[in-house]
Specification:
The structure is a homodimer. The first copy, chain A, has 388 residues and is of the alpha+beta class. Chain A is 29% helix and 22% strand. In chain A, the strands form two sheets. In chain A, strands 6, 7, 8, 9, 10, 11, 12 and 13 form an eight-stranded mixed sheet that branches. In chain A, strand 7 and strand 8 form a beta hairpin. The interface between A and B is large, with 65 and 65 residues. Strand 7 of chain A pairs antiparallel with strand 2 of chain B. Chain A: It comes from Oncorhynchus tshawytscha.
Chain lengths: 388, 398
């Protein structure tokens, strides 16, 4: 009997690929979250760590609600614990960059995306925002807009995709893209919660859909002008991690989470300037694509945090990707590096889609590269240094 | 020691209860066990002026539904407020990867019972890259045909049968390695040994009412875990729109519960009922005094075009229905056309009350549960009102 009971327990635990945290009482938590906080405000400072992919966060109390970014003080943290500095000289600075409403603690509390500076006030290796902002300011008058399509996979805490049989695979791809039904869509709750949280926070989330691989999803952020693209996408990623944490599952931005005949995860980047969006803009689009075609390796290096190594597992030429070694472009062609949407081909204006960026790319690096090549007409393997 | 023994016995009973609950839980998806309390906290967050519009379309199979969402800056008041969109048809069995963009054209809008007001569900037509209708976009032609007979005010009511399956593909509530007792006690039944999965039915009904879908009834069906809902009366193109919307809502409700809705016309072979989509039809003339004559005329025309309708009544040109229309289990035989008052073994049944009042409507019992309602309703209009004959649909110049 006792043996039977422990077998029972074993079976139940095996089914639970969700974290222990997720089974803490949410009713108990709600009681505490309903407590009023007076005039005090909680500001959660968020930054990118030494990996260039990971996000970190810590909170401080403020005495009143910050109305804009200038109301938020600088802060610092221990960089030796985030792969960012040595223990002997570990203080690093957090410089508030973008502020959002906090969908977890709710008003008047804030999420504060920050830049990281080293002890000598120079940007850290993974602070790609500083340079991106400079570049964006150089081309402000061209009004560059971006939209990024963030793909990701939901994993259980066991590292296996959520909803997949624990010791195997689901049926092959085909029925899952935009699917509905318990046998097609795995983990929609996360997607719904994330969408609402982003809307509340003020993140420019413009859509979601289920992706080709089961437990894979996509959300789109945009249209964002200039530096906002990176800010909003990083904020949306943080919110996703936090939502998944609440549900007890994990969001992965790995570009090829399951090898073999399973889709990878990208971050297709849509781009346009004022000129491209106006009548006859197709010419500006084609000019840009031509420039991109001459600088393929430079962009591949900018499009994932490992200089192209991550994308090498994903950009095979199959599963709606282009081959990492070749540059190609085409109207409505999902096997190309650059896709021109059919409606753009017809209207002769609009935008184009760079399908190369990896799901774990740094949007600051991606958007900066597009500006450098297409608008600043840079060439060659190295970014240009500008005096400003 | 007696207390200890009793205590251990209770612990074991609890273990067994948990074990059985665990076993039943195994037939539901992992998604269903994600915390709904957590989800509710997020769904309660205000969304400002932004509106989520979920675009829904029929994929290349002609049976499957797909959906994706976009944010709008304000609440759409009518279908014209909704922009066209597009999607990757190579991932839905609808196009090649090299030329995969397909268009989504909003056709019918409903309130969203999952995300609630002001959010919307938007049923769409699909166009190919060259703006021609996709192969499984049967709405386009149906709408043209309906417009031709508008003045006859055609009404439809469709009785959608379906089976609830676990994620293991076995009917929900059935013993995992066997069968329930034979059919008999389940139709319109009540009780845990008769009705399997009523929660889904109740949730679906309310969701449809909220959404504005014309759901007019539900009942438990003859096979356990099989249910039926009825949509109608709907005029013209609305029948197809409302039935597809009701099907989408059913899939989405089942997803939330962690089970699967199947419209397979014969999910379990042998002495178990199939699933159909009986279609009730009438025109203004049929509904008025003496309308029985028009009913009988229509039935006569249908009798001369049995094969054409069988082709239109499931997505595989009759192959799916071949497993279901055996002449047993309250179906007619697929090879023969028949009609009769109050006869559930006939292709067409005239309700007894209609036989008595000499007016009303009639029921075509041939359509399969996975039929396309646009195809079914169009076929009825073509044969009964446009008096078409033969194996091919007539082409009209408009």
């Amino acid at each position: 009997m006792i043996a039977l009971c422990s077998k029972v327990f074993q079976a139940l635990i095996e089914k639970m690929a969700t974290s222990e945290s997720a089974s803490l009482s949410k009713t108990v938590k709600q009681h505490y979250m309903d407590l009023s906080q007076g005039d005090k405000v909680q500001a959660m400072y968020i930054w990118i760590d030494g990996t260039g992919e990971g996000l970190r966060c810590k909170t401080r109390t403020l005495d009143s609600e910050p109305k804009n970014i200038d109301d938020l003080p600088e802060w610092n943290f221990d960089g030796s614990s985030t792969y960012q500095s040595e223990g002997s000289n570990s203080d690093m600075y957090l410089i508030p960059a973008a502020m959002f409403r906090d969908p977890f603690r709710k008003d008047p509390n804030k999420l504060v995306l920050c830049e990281v500076l080293k002890y000598n006030r120079k940007p850290t290796e993974t602070n790609l925002r500083l340079m991106c902002k400079k570049i964006m300011e150089m081309v402000e008058n061209q009004v560059p807009w971006f939209g990024m399509e963030q793909e990701y996979t939901i994993l259980g805490t066991d590292g296996h995709p959520f909803g997949w049989p624990s010791n195997g695979f689901p049926g092959p791809q085909g029925p899952y893209y935009c699917g509905v039904g318990a046998d097609k869509a795995y983990g929609r709750d996360i997607v719904e919660a994330h969408y609402r949280a982003c809307l509340y926070a003020g993140v420019m989330i413009c859509g979601t859909n289920a992706e080709v691989m089961p437990a894979q999803w996509e959300f789109q952020v945009g249209p964002c002008e200039g530096i906002n693209m990176g800010d909003h996408l990083w904020a949306a990623r943080f919110i996703l991690h936090r939502v998944c944490e609440d549900f007890g599952v994990v969001a992965s931005f790995d570009p090829k989470p399951i090898p073999g005949n399973w889709n990878g995860a990208g971050c297709h980047t849509n781009f346009s300037t004022k000129e491209m969006r106006e009548d006859g803009g197709l010419r500006g689009i084609e000019d840009s694509i031509e420039k991109l075609g001459r600088r393929h390796c430079y962009h591949i290096r900018a499009y994932d945090p490992k200089g192209g190594l991550d994308n090498a597992r994903r950009l095979t030429g199959h599963h709606e990707t282009s081959n990492i070694h070749e540059f190609s472009a085409g109207v409505a062609n999902r096997g190309a590096s650059i896709r021109i949407p059919r409606s753009v081909g017809q209207d002769k204006k609009g935008y184009f889609e760079d399908r190369r960026p990896s799901a774990n790319c740094d949007p600051y690096a991606v958007t900066e590269a597009l500006i450098r090549t297409c608008l600043l007409s840079e060439e060659g393997e190295e970014p240009k240094e500008y005096s400003k």
